[in-house]
Design goal:
By secondary structure, this protein is an alpha+beta fold. The chain contains seven helices and four strands. Bound molecules: zinc ion.
């Protein structure tokens, strides 16, 4: 009898023990195979928080493919203010020294959902300027791999009228004017 009571109280004690709060799982960090250079990190940080992981994955792909070619790939530009984009648009236009580098006055860069990469040689030389045939090939390979991995990315290299190989943007299925309208209302474009 005594043993039975002992067992019963033990059981009851077990049952009434305050339940431990379930530990909340930490949000998984993106897979980091490489450490990014300071310039890339700085630019990644200017992107919209909702697209940052997509661009981290894209940068990892870019760096891996770059290594295959003995080329260092960095993210050299991401977010641009409307003012900065306007300055860029004026390059090569209205009597300003060229070349023309963009066709748009307002770009997806202004909405923090686009990034430009740069290919650099062993001595730090900017290959996009000196060997654009090679860099176009590299960027196309990056895009193909990104597609294989299912990243929601659009590549400027696929544009017929003004191919922009170093340019990649997040596919949010919105036009620039739709995004302008959304931003005007203070809402998010992604
Ligand atoms: Zn761009």
């Amino acid at each position: 009898m005594f043993r039975f009571l002992k067992r019963l109280t033990a059981k009851l004690r077990q049952r009434w023990k305050p339940r431990k709060k379930a530990k909340s799982k930490p949000t998984p960090k993106p897979r980091r195979r490489h450490s990014f250079d300071a310039r890339t990190k700085k630019n990644l940080d200017t992107l919209h928080p909702k697209v940052k992981n997509t661009f981290i994955a894209l940068t990892e792909i870019a760096m891996a493919i770059g290594r295959k070619y003995g080329v260092t790939i960095k993210m050299i530009s991401a977010h641009r203010s409307m003012e900065e984009q306007k300055k860029l648009y004026n390059k090569g236009r209205y009597g300003n020294p060229g070349p023309i580098v963009t066709t748009v006055k307002v770009s997806r860069h202004c909405f923090q959902i686009a990034a430009d990469y740069g290919c650099f040689g062993k001595n730090g030389s900017y290959l996009d300027g000196s060997d654009s045939t090679l860099t176009a090939k590299i960027y196309t390979e990056i895009y193909k791999q990104a597609q294989k991995e299912g990243l929601p990315i659009i590549h400027g290299g696929t544009w017929k009228s003004f191919p922009d190989y170093p340019h990649f943007e997040y596919k949010n299925n919105l036009t620039i004017s739709q995004m302008k309208e959304i931003a005007r209302k203070g809402q998010e474009v992604v």
